[in-house]
Design a protein that fits this description.
mainly beta, 3-stranded mixed beta sheet, single chain, 0% helix, 56% strand, 4-stranded antiparallel beta sheet
Length: 73
């Protein structure tokens, strides 16, 4: 499981992941966030805009299932 630390008050931000990678998360609209990995190793995903601290996001990627843990900074 990879942890993403983010500020829930920001609509767009660069984030650091627990696996040492970095990424970018931005609010697409009132209902969705987009996460993109800077190194393209971690899969990108779209998730609900209402994130909660400690939430787990499950992603089915081409190289298998991934889990992201959302942590508020």
């Amino acid at each position: 499981m990879v942890t993403i630390q983010l500020d829930p008050q920001m609509n767009e931000q660069h984030v650091m992941l627990s696996d040492g990678a970095s990424g970018y998360i931005k609010k697409l609209d009132q209902q969705r966030f987009l996460f993109e990995s800077a190194n393209h190793y971690d899969p990108s995903f779209i998730c609900p805009a209402k994130l909660t601290d400690g939430e787990i996001i499950n992603v089915n990627a081409a190289n298998g299932p991934w889990q992201y843990l959302i942590k508020f900074a």
